[in-house]
């Protein structure tokens, strides 16, 4: 590290030249520089590296060297045998095991699930979560107006409205800035509510709305007013997949916070220990193929099916 970032230019350039395929450089006592062809890919890589660094720190606290590969298991040294690796069924019941390089028959490493209609009845989201957020939005905003995360939600809704009005979307509601003395706060709250209602009525799955809904649902889950619902076979499926060494990830239009809240407060208990990753629309919209490519990259899957 150096006193000024510009003094790092030469050593940073040398590191990049030495490792041309890398997308990050860690500077001692400073931090990490991450880059990518798009800001979204750079963000994804930063999140993955953050997770790996967190694991490394935790391992170090346990006197484990994160730089060493796990030692090979020797059945003569330990009476405990590792569980047998189970191979998932091929794509068809009568198809024999094939080439592991074949995406159709290669062992499944990760299962990516949606929430609505997959793990949770659509009616729970439509008839419980959405009405709860709508009914409690005004009171939540009023009570927590001074919180920075809530102000971030309001700024996001305002920016979204500006873009929607620019795009000529009929019904979009502009949200004014609050006066320094707060004299127009009620008017700002009215505009926020009108914008929230319009977005929900239009079934807009935009990030600012999802983030605000997640904050409202968090209060509901913690107060006991909300409890998530999962299908009866979800726990059995999770247990089977995790037992087979398969990671289970979630990709939903709801925010990652909302996803974790739902699975942390279900009618079957806390299921978060079965789930390894959560993805929302910050990685891309669900109807865009690029979103799934980014998720596969984040999960380390080279042959997504």
From TrEMBL:
Pfam families: Aldolase_II, Hydrolase. InterPro entries: Aldolase_II/adducin_N, Aldolase_II/adducin_N_sf, Enolase-ppase_E1, HAD-like_sf, HAD_sf. Keywords: Amino-acid biosynthesis, Hydrolase, Methionine biosynthesis. Residues 4-56 form the Class II aldolase/adducin N-terminal domain. Residues 68-105 are annotated as: Disordered. The keyword NADP does not apply. This is Class II aldolase/adducin N-terminal domain-containing protein. It comes from Fibrocapsa japonica.
